[in-house]
Queue: 2 jobs
Job 1
Amino acid sequence: MKQKMLEHFARIYGDADGAEVFFAPGRVNMIGEHTDYNGGHVFPCALTIGTYGAVRRRGDRRLRFYSVNFSRAGVIESSLDELTPSSEAGWTNYPKGVMWTFAQRGMEMDCGLDLVLFGNIPNGSGLSSSASVEVLTGAILRGLYGFEVSNQDLALIGQYAENHFNGMNCGIMDQFAIAMGKKDHAIFLDTNTLSYEYAPLVLDGARIVIACSNKKRGLVDSKYNERRSECKAALADLQKVCRIQSLGELTEEEFEQYKGAIQNPVCVKRARHAVYENRRAVRAVEALKKNELALFGQLMNESHVSLRDDYEVTGIELDTLVDAAWGVDGVIGSRMTGAGFGGCTVSIVKNEAVDTFMERVGKTYQEKIGYAADFYAVEIGDGPQQL
Ligand code: GLA
């Protein structure tokens, strides 16, 4: 891939002398969904698919960006003096947001750069292509300009850029999973304290399969921000009757005891999901440590039901994929993953059932939804690297 990226670079910018190649993964979350902005736990892992960047410093302050995935947009030009978001900037708002955040933190680039990106994360799949580009940009700036930042800093910088430059009020999960990824391990992260632990995700005789709904994800950002405010309203009501800073501090029993304080019935459902899902993530990791994969799968299934009925972020496409998956022998667990409203599902499927899974779920989906889903058996990989 390094060679291929250098070839792309030479094709776009004339030659690739002195260009370097970096990589950052995509991510999938196994359990703990919509808990990261509620002070709860998440359990994501980095994938071996992700975003590659070939890059070279320039002698002036210009910035040139080109994406193989959005080749029709051509080379998009900017400069270090124009680090402000704009709709014409398209996808380059992601790398620019990270450059802007570095500068905010006193790490000013002393010259511009030429960049070529290529991603093999399926577009709009919900496997965090934008967070991958953000962490990749951070790794590039660290490598090229010698800024001293840890991988955890790269995650925080990426999230800050997403929140304050790109206007998506996401939690820390995606950038953290990508920046801190470790081959064959998932990351059990307490989003309240950022303390974390790697847990081997060794699936004896089974694989992680992603099913991508291919649904256009138009309203994700606004719906996402709406869920955040509903949780915030629930928390404010609960704080009148108990001393908590976040929903993630409550056990299920405490929630049942205090939930009467929440005024809006919709917010009761949202908060119930946040509390129960956090506890499910904790129990799922305990189950995994004891090698109880069936229990882990069952908790994944329960997670989907809660996201469907209480959090209401699934929709007909994701529900169809998950319902069909539950009906296939050899499926240990299946749920939507990521923000929802489209995107993809994650399933743990026994090796011998993977082909049948893809065929049967694919057929049901096509018949019911009218277009095809895509399937990927994925591997868990490392965080950002220079190749
Ligand atoms: C998106 C956000 C994450 C997280 C998930 C839901 O991926 O970027 O921060 O909130 O949705 O779990």
Note: The chain has a mean pLDDT of 96.
Job 2
Amino acid sequence: MKHTKIKDLLNSTKPIDDVTVKGWVRTFRNNQFLAINDGSVIHNIQAVVDFENTAPETLKRLTTGAAVLIKGSLTESQGAGQKFEIQAKHLEILGDSDAEKFPMQPKKHSLEFLRENAHLRVRTNVFGAIMRVRSVLSFAIHQYFQEKGFVYVNTPIITGSDAEGAGEMFKVTALAFDGTPRNEEGKVDYKADFFGKETNLTVSGQLEAETYAMALGQVYTFGPTFRAENSNTSRHLAEFWMVEPEVAFNDLDANMDLAEDFIQYVIKYTLDKCPDDLAFLNQRLADEEKTKPMAERSELGLLEKLNFVLENNFKRVSYTEAIEILRNSKPNKNKKFNYIIDEWGADLQSEHERFLVEKHFKCPVILFDYPAKIKAFYMRLNDDAPAERQTVRAMDILFPGIGEIVGGSQREERLDVLQQKIADLGIDEKELWWYLDTRRFGTAVHSGFGLGFERLVLFVTGMTNIRDVIPFPRTPQNAEF
Ligand code: 4AD
Ligand code: MG
């Protein structure tokens, strides 16, 4: 039986005689007004039930969460709050929902409670809105790169290399858990494993993407990545989605231009396509802000914040300048930071990143030219820096409320410099023979970056915990569902 989406009915320009709707009951008031949602739009449609001609047993089954089919006519609504409603002529309960047991009651639940019910939380307004926005954002990402002629590359999920050299990887093995068989040295014999070598879930598709950029020119990946870092924060997931463009012949400035243009495009696209969901999330954030003390409230609302990013250039600041700003900042002098900045070379913590973005510059910031020591092996060494202050052509984009949203760099294209770096870090060059081939055959300047998709969704939805912007979050001690 053909049914119409609630979104289309609410957008109708005229009454319609015969319509069929299928969805889930949100509320049932006065034995008469049934609010139904089908996920197509944040709004419910109201069906007016002819209770005098409906069996009392059926009316009793119209409980929150029940799946229903309604046939009737779409008429202009008398009541306030909606333009159209359905005068129900036929009503069927497709699936009952025990009102006593259904966890999603028609009331405000805490986000913690909803996380424990991640399989049902998407039936709430907030999570419906977040997940529709997430979907539109991912489409916008493809649209942006496809319009610009980038090739979408699917890099492997199972890899034999550690792209970030940080060792925060999940092992992939088909061996027994007691670690047998062993080799002569008593170590696990990975030659006997499925792939004949040690493998892990990818932390980044960058290295493989670089090889493709050196043939196809402009490429991007968009897929799941995995990190076994034990960071139990509101911005870290063990499984997250990353977008990684990689462009031949781009230097770091062109890389920054690309990142800025890309982020502005996808936010603009989503503002255009999701006005209702974003209006709802804007209000949700405003309500949440009201519960905070004045001093902690953010100056801008969600929509204002999104428009601010579209209308303002990101501020580009070198690491060295940033360190000076931080060193002289009030929280540093008053020892309010957990990590006091006293020396050039210090790695920035999220408290420092957020100070720069939220308190000092009050706009998105691109930090560049980081100390070589705190960045990955593949980043291009700056030739003009003094030996004790070696820097690399790295860039991190910092966003208000988020901290780091993008990490990227110009890549080291010189074979000898890259080999030296790999040796200095004690990485086995043999593991990276294929990566080094890009530098052996037709090497060229190239750059790329990685954008953490969930951090972008956090920013666009105004949510504060990354566990609330991915359907089924994976974090330390948590892999339910
Ligand atoms: O800064 P990262 O580690 O950079 C890379 O992986 C590079 N290979 C990217 C590249 O140049 N192609 O990660 C990139 C971004 C971060 O800026 C952050 O937004 C996100 O990925 N990210 C995480 N998001 C959620 N949970 C985590 N545990 C994350 N780790 C990084
Ligand atoms: Mg990073």
Note: Residues 163-164, 204, 206, 227, 229, 236-237, 240, 242, 244, 404-409, 448-450, 452, 454-455 surround 4AD (ligand 1) (CB under 6 Å).
